[in-house]
Amino acid sequence: MNSNLLLAVSAVAVGAVLLSVNHTAISDFYAYSVPYNDFAVVHMAYSSDPDSFQLTKQRQDSVCLVTPSGNEYCYGRPHNIGDVKITYIVGSNGIDGEMHLEPVGRAAGYWAISRIVPVSETVGVITFSDSANLYHDLSRSNTSEEFEFTKTVERYNTFVANCRNDGKVVDIVQYLGVVAVEGADYVATWHVHAESERGIPCKYPEIIKHSFRHNFGI
Q1: For FRET with 71, which of 91, 119, 157, 216 sits at 20 to 30 Å CA-CA?
Q2: What is the dihedral of CA 33, 128, 181, 63, to 10 degrees?
Q3: Chain center to CA of 52
Q4: What helix, strand, coil percent values describe the chain, rounded to 5?
């Protein structure tokens, strides 16, 4: 085979691979990224008091933060459930969530999160896996495929960690980094859920990877 023919064959082969990769990327974009635009976070209230945000904010032991979306959230003193601390985070936008604080070095996360390793106060590495089973056993419900991948996240990064109700409900997690509680360091995350009539295919890990492009307004 002469060099020109070899070059032509190689170019065709490379082109075919690139075309296949681009087709997959475009297909996944429309299958997983675009549907997320239709999801709206459900306004949940863990307190029946309409002034719960201001009341929480005014408490001496409360902590407040402002997300990149411009929403202010406050949470009170957490309570212990084993090694994990739990509290409820209340937003100025009417969205409340459940907040988990896990000891640094033992942060296992929940839903598709199987491990969280902080590398600084604001940056962490999250491992997502089909073997994660806190809250929901993914291997028995939404996926029969094995998967595991890691993602470096920064404070306020938001992503989907679970998909349910035939893809019409997704559970959203926001990473808050490392926070100190009573002299000890904890990895902090909080979660809410969003709904869409259109829905999304509950396929892992695609629903997780593509969700990082959305902040869902929280």
Answers
A1: 119
A2: 10
A3: 25
A4: 25, 35, 40
What are 37-95's pLDDT values in tens digits? 999 999 877 777 778 899 999 999 999 999 999 999 999 999 999 999 999 999 999 99
- Residues facing residue 181 across a β-bridge: 184
- What's the angle, vertex CA 194, arms to CA 64 and CA 76, rounded to 5? 20
Structure tokens given for 55:
């009341």
Q: Whole-angstrom Cα distance, residue 51 to residue 56?
A: 9
β-pair type (184-195, 169-181): antiparallel
Using CA atoms, how far apart are residues 191 and 75, in angstroms rounded to an integer? 13
Residue 190: which of 104, 89, 99, 71 has the closest Cα? 99
| Strand, coil or helix: 203 | coil
* AA letter at 38: D
Structure tokens at 208: 């997780």
- HSE-CB at 204 with a 13 A cutoff on CA atoms is 27
Two structure tokens written together for 45: 């209230």
